[in-house]
Write a structure and sequence with these properties.
The chain has 240 residues and is of the alpha/beta class. The chain is built from eight helices and six strands; from the N terminus they run E-H-H-E-H-H-E-H-E-H-H-E-E-H. It has a single domain, classed as Decaprenyl diphosphate synthase-like (Undecaprenyl pyrophosphate synthetase), CATH 3.40.1180.
């Protein structure tokens, strides 16, 4: 297959609306949503996608949603990891996390770190889970890291007054060494990026779909990939 995106970013919106529509609990909706992520990741791996980054929970979700929602979310993480083990996903994908995991309960941090370590030798698609993530916070994190290095950790050969290039700045970001997303998909008829991967989306194709995330199928995902494949991306150059 030609013109397959190397990196797909996903904002899986509509889980809570799906739970209300189907009169079920939030946990059920998010479990269904994570099943969709698993199925899409398997399909993506089969067609040659190398990275899928999923906006699991934003920094704002963590700060602004109530205890009941957070308790439901935190109870879901062990379930997801058990499912990953049961379905042998831990033997196929490499899992990474981005975001401020220090804001999560210690038990959740431990389980996520163990999942990441367990999958690091895998050769398949890299599934990146953005948890307690904010695009603005990531940029500030990178800037502060540069400031610390240039003020506290500099040596005589460093040039603390040298201007910082985009290339150098990128080295301090979470996804250093990973190509930026070629495609962003957001579900549930929401037409915004909500602070997701702000540094990386400059040339991404943005495709918004009406389905609530738990209703998205592999076939629907394949349709979106086909739509992407028909696009001619110029990155600022003259269209051929």
């Amino acid at each position: 297959m030609n013109n397959i995106p190397k990196h797909v970013a996903i904002i899986p919106d509509g889980n809570m609306r799906w739970s209300k529509k189907h009169k079920c609990g939030t946990v059920t909706a998010y479990e269904k949503g994570m099943n969709v992520v698993e199925q899409i990741a398997v399909y993506g791996n089969d067609i040659g996608i190398r990275y899928i980054t999923v906006f699991v929970m934003s920094h704002e979700n963590l700060m602004k949603r109530g205890k009941a929602w957070l308790d439901d979310f935190f109870s879901l993480v062990p379930t997801i990891i058990r499912e990953f083990n049961k379905k042998h996903i831990v033997e196929l994908f490499k899992v990474q996390t981005i975001g401020d995991l220090s804001r999560l309960p210690i038990s959740i941090q431990t389980e996520l770190n163990e999942l990441v370590q367990k999958t690091q030798s895998n050769c398949g698609l890299t599934l990146i889970l953005a948890i307690a993530y904010s695009g603005k916070e990531e940029i500030v994190y990178a800037a502060n890291k540069i400031i610390r290095e240039r003020t506290c950790g500099s040596n005589d050969n460093d040039k603390p007054n040298t201007l910082i290039t985009c290339e150098e700045f990128s080295k301090y970001m979470y996804l250093n060494g990973i190509p930026p997303p070629d495609l962003l998909i957001r579900s549930a008829n929401e037409y915004r990026v909500s602070g997701f991967l702000l540094w990386y989306l400059a040339y991404a194709e943005l495709i918004f779909i009406p389905e609530l995330w738990p209703d998205v199928t592999v076939d629907r995902f394949a349709e979106v990939i086909d739509c992407y494949r028909k696009k001619i991306r110029t990155f600022g150059s003259i269209r051929p």
